Amino acid sequence: MLIQILKIRQDILDFINDDLLLLLAETRKERKTEAFIASKEYVGNLPNFVKEEISDVIDQLQKDCPTFGLNELETTVKVLAVMEKSRSGYALLDKLSKFNHGNIDELNIVLAEWSITDIKKVLNVLKWRLELVTELERLVDNSTTDELHDLQPLFERGLWIFGPEFESISFISNRTLSTIIRNFFAERVIDNPKRRPDFVILPNASIGIYSRDAFNEDHEINSIGAVVIVELKRGGFQISSEEKDQAMYYAREIRKSGKVDRNTKITCYVLGSSIDANAEDKSEEGPITIIPMRYFTLISKAKARLFNLIDELEKFKKENGTDEETTEQELFVVSN
Questions:
Q1: Are residue 105 and residue 222 in the same domain, yes or no?
Q2: Are 31 and 59 in contact (CB under 8 A)?
Q3: pLDDT grade, residue 203 (50/70/90)?
């Protein structure tokens, strides 16, 4: 008896709903037309079959959400039209569908404060830096010389690791100064497998030389303002006083060459797996500073400057069961 009553009740509800749909059909049609007219600059150039697809979506939306107002319908039409014009529009919708409510709210706040262009620039820089640190972790303890030489070019855009004073993109690889160091080592230099004359390749190390310009009162370049030398030792190599002295010698050669001013600051980082107890302190001589550093310390500094995002990303992937390449969505979620 109860089942029959429930069935009759459902039949009545279905009849009422169908009747309401018929009664409001004309109203829905008018509102859809108004929404399309208000969005004509978005849908005007779309193919007819696409307009029909959008029309079908709006019809279904009004049936499923009868409280939707005209403004919401207009916005929906515009969004669908823009998505159709964008090759990746629906892929974006798919990604957004995987965000939880909290992420959507946070994304809305971010978009209110940042442009898409700015967000992409920041995420691109962040992603590249994360990849650099990951590559460093993979290579620093590898004793294969070729791997070490592959690592040196990464520092062209990786000087930020050493501190905020090296954030400037004006630090570029200096081929002229590398020639001075190459002449200093003479026959010890080996052929550069990557055909990079701006790097000095040795049997157990590679050396990159970077500089930025100095400007006079008229804002014109008048000299080299600062020099940064990055010497990477092979994995497992221990830095001793001998390596520090060697770095001081070739830094002096740069000063003696006349290619830099007598007060030009020259900073040399000598990186290795470990440091002898008697060689841990930095050495200074006038504007020259030699800084020995363990790879472990370098990576720790890099992670700290990235707010430990690498560890957070690994934690995020474990919690969400993903092992795929880091996406910009993951970077956004972790950083908020």
A1: no
A2: no
A3: confident
pTM of the full structure: 0.62
Half-sphere exposure of 130 (CA within 13 A, CB side): 20
Average pLDDT over residues 67-87: 79
CA dist 133 and 51 (Å) reads 48
Whether residue 186 is found in the same domain as residue 276: yes
Highest mean pLDDT among 46-50, 146-150, 171-175: 171-175
Residues 223 and 327 in one domain: no
Indicate whether 255 and 294 sit together in one domain: yes
CA–CA dist 211, 215 (Å, integer): 13
pLDDT at site 292: 96
Half-sphere exposure in the Cβ direction for 110 (13 Å, CA) = 18
Mean pLDDT of 58-66: 80
For range 118-147, the mean pLDDT: 77
Within a domain: residue 333?
yes
Q: State yes or no: pLDDT of 114 exceeds 50.
A: yes
Domain enclosing residue 38, as ranges:
16-94
Q: Are 251 and 202 found together in one domain?
A: yes
Q: How many domains is the chain built from?
A: 3
- Lowest average pLDDT, out of 4-13, 161-170, 319-328, goes to 319-328
204 and 284 in a single domain? The answer is yes
Report how far residue 77's alpha carbon sits from residue 310's, in angstroms, rounded to the nearest whole number: 40
Predicted pLDDT at 334: 47
